[in-house]
Write a structure and sequence with these properties.
The chain is of the alpha+beta class and about 475 residues long. It has two domains: about 1-230, CAP (Pathogenesis-related Protein p14a), CATH 3.40.33.10; about 260-465, no CATH class. About 50% of the residues lie in helices and about 10% in strands. The protein is built from 15 helices and six strands. The chain has helices at about 55-75, 95-105, 140-150, 160, 175-180, 230-240, 245-250, 260-275, 280-290, 300-320, 325-345, 350-370, 375-400, 410-430, 435-475, and strands spanning about 1-10, 50, 90, 125-130, 190-200, 205-215. Strands 1, 2, 3, 4, 5 and 6 form a six-stranded mixed sheet that branches. It is elongated, with a radius of gyration of 34 Å. It starts with a strand and ends in a 10-residue tail after the last helix.
Length: about 475
């Protein structure tokens, strides 16, 4: 029995879309996908077979790659410094398809160009395994070949990582497969394998050609990865954006990427709203305490508003939505509860105020402590829109009947309007939850109605105060008798 293993690596250049577009590949090189169909090449034997890339196989290939990358990134490989940044590879079907075009020729070798619209600098590792008189599964071969690529770490050192050798300065032994695997700018991979039999020297040799395409390739004279411990700033940025956008901004310097800009803007708005929510109802609370009165504030409206906020908070928390998408509701719930307590207290019901406090605390525990089924929270979230509208519009009705907004804080009203409008955008970007989007839309409408009332009655109050002031001045003016002279 006999086994022969050969391998190779290539570093690629740049380009853009449509596989037959001459601008996709430099130097008039032929793209591997130009004019290709799903047919096998003329040199393929009858028994040729493309190895199915099932989800299990894809996961296995990714896991091997990412374990190797993690070992290097953590500084666990002798002679190599840890990496300040090395993203987890994900599978890319287009890269896989281009790898299939290569192996379906049944000719072992690199193709000249495989760039795509999304990845203009695609790199490639190739390897082949041949044997007869033994059973070797494709998965066994993939494991052996990937391990051999990674084993090239013995042929390199950190100097080659800090600056990949220029043309003509390559080390005596291969390092290209290893460096391609641990390249920090590579974020995706797609692989393919073909297996076929050929009779050679009286033996039926089984040939397995294996190709992996990577979203980015090594540039000579440039670092394979940036050494250093992962910085706290990097970890913070990864909280603000996903790995794809981090790579777009900090590795590819694609600062004008629209999708990533919207995602980052959404995160920024989300945290801005949360920061604002810490104080959004404090002016309202302060106004009640200063006047020792909650005149004009509808307890019914406060309770409905608190119910809607609390259900929304619990629904988001249990669903595991990012804190930036709902964190403001936790502060709004606390402040709204305080307003409810003050309305009862200054309304002459201290006992009711204390009962309200205990009851609300128990409700929050039941909703967010894992005691409430998600199905109930979903149903309650559906009722949020009418409850929210009823609560807000009942306050608007009270304002109309009173002819003023009473102790309502203008600052609070306008901050709530701005926050609910911004939340429509952040919900679309971060959760895509239609129920949340509709809820914030309804909230924005109701907040707008009250904000308009604040402006209207503000101007009306000024006019009334002006008239009252004039009347008071006239009343205080001393009376004089007029004298006639002839």
């Amino acid at each position: 029995m006999s086994v022969v293993v050969v391998a190779g690596v290539i570093n690629q250049i740049n380009g853009q879309s449509d596989y037959c577009d001459p601008t996709l590949c430099k130097n008039k090189l032929t793209h591997v996908g130009c004019g290709k169909t799903d047919n096998y090449g003329p040199y393929c034997p009858v028994d040729r077979q493309l190895v199915p890339m099932t989800e299990e196989v894809k996961t296995y290939i990714l896991d091997l790659h990412n374990v190797f990358r993690a070992n290097v990134a953590r500084g666990e490989v002798t002679n190599y410094a840890p990496a300040s940044r090395m993203p987890t590879l994900v599978w890319n079907d287009e890269l896989q398809k281009l790898a299939e075009y290569n192996v379906k020729t049944c000719i072992y070798g690199h193709d000249y160009c495989r760039n795509t619209k999304d990845f203009p600098l695609v790199g490639q590792n190739i390897a082949a395994n041949s044997f007869y008189g033994m059973e070797v599964t494709p998965l066994d071969t993939m494991t052996e070949l990937l391990s051999s690529w990674y084993g090239e770490s013995d042929n390199a050192n950190q100097d080659y990582i800090d600056s990949y050798p220029l043309l003509g300065q390559d080390p005596p032994k291969d390092i290209g497969h290893f460096t391609q695997i641990v390249m920090d700018k590579a974020t995706a991979v797609g692989c393919a394998m073909i297996q076929y039999t050929q009779n050679e020297q009286g033996h039926d040799w089984v040939h397995q050609n294996y190709v992996c395409n990577y979203s980015n390739s090594i540039a000579r004279g440039h670092p394979v990865y940036i050494k250093g411990n992962p910085c706290e700033l990097c970890e913070f940025m990864l909280y603000l954006m996903d790995e794809k956008c981090y790579d777009k901004y900090f590795l590819e310097f694609d600062l004008l990427n629209g999708d990533c800009f919207r995602a980052l803007l959404s995160k920024g708005l989300g945290f801005g709203i949360i920061a604002g929510s810490v104080l959004v109802k404090v002016p309202q609370i302060t106004k009640i305490l200063a006047n020792k009165s909650a005149r004009g504030i509808s307890l019914f409206s406060v309770c409905l508003d608190l119910f809607a906020i609390t259900i929304h908070m619990a629904y988001s928390f249990v669903n595991g939505f990012p804190f930036s998408a709902w964190g403001d509701t936790s502060f709004l719930a606390l402040q709204t509860a305080i307003i409810g307590i003050l309305v009862l207290f200054f309304g002459g019901s201290p006992l009711a105020s204390a009962t309200f406090t205990v009851g609300y605390g128990a409700l929050v525990y039941v909703l967010m402590g894992g005691l409430t089924p998600l199905s109930f929270l979903l149903l309650a979230q559906g009722f949020n829109v009418p409850v929210l509208l009823l609560g807000k519009l009942s306050q608007a009705l009270a304002n109309y009947r009173n002819g003023s907004t009473g102790q309502l804080s203008a600052v609070t009203c306008f901050m709530l309007l701005a926050g609910s409008l911004a939340r429509i955008f952040t919900s679309i970007q971060e959760t895509g939850d239609q129920m949340m989007i509709i809820t914030y839309g309804a909230s924005s409408f109701a907040n707008l109605v009250i904000a308009v009332q604040v402006l209207y009655y503000w101007n009306s109050d000024k006019s009334k105060k002006g008239a009252a002031s004039g009347a008071a001045t006239a009343a205080k003016k001393p009376k004089t008798k007029s004298k006639k002279t002839d």
